[in-house]
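Researcher: Please predict.
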Amino acid sequence: MNNHGMLSIDLNCDLGEGCGNDERLMPLITSANIACGFHAGDNETMKRTVDLAVKHSVAIGAHPGYPDRDNFGRTNMPFSSEQIGAIVTEQIEKLEVICSAAGTAISHVKPHGALYNQAAREPSVARAIANAVKQFDDNVVLFGLSGSHSIAEARRAGLRTASEVFADRTYTNDGSLTPRGDPRALIVDVNLAVSQVLDMVRDGRVRAVDGIMVAIKAETLCIHGDGARAVEFASTIRDALSANSIEIRRIKNG
């Protein structure tokens, strides 16, 4: 919701992961989460993605993950809170160097993959990430799973947060994402994705896989950039939001 009482949503996408869609996706979104080299990406890709974001006036976010390129950062790792804080800080700082050189700055942080999911479920992981972000810059917005420990711990640390929802993932009746191992986890029909997005943004609810309607807060909507039809999904969802008088705009930080 914005100041004029009109509904609004930020559209975010994970980019710089080598999926090849970045140039076509960037004009369709308002926030880019840029891989920082641990689960995907490298300095050259980060630079290219930052330049693209600047060109399209898209907010730049760090997208830190576990150092696990073989599994694309999607496997839990037994890291201590100190180790998690250290890897998050290292990745944010790597991207910040590139942003500074391009005359811009990081406005948000969104953890990736297993790190994101662990933070949603485990307060200690959420707290380690929130503290690392706060020490880096307390004006940076933390993106986390809506209704999860990620958001609660970031707020407790005094950070601004953006409650994230997903266009192409299903939900369980406690408001968490259906695990990827479940055959129902992904939404591949763009019409189903659009209807879920409108339920979440307009009505503050989502239909869980068991049919129950669950309350949900939607401030930023993730559109995955690695799907075969990512660009089609992004443009169709964008059109549907506009057709329903929902403003698409970036989250303000600071």
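Model: The helical segments are 22-25, 43-55, 81-101, 113-121, 123-136, 149-156, 190-203, 230-243.
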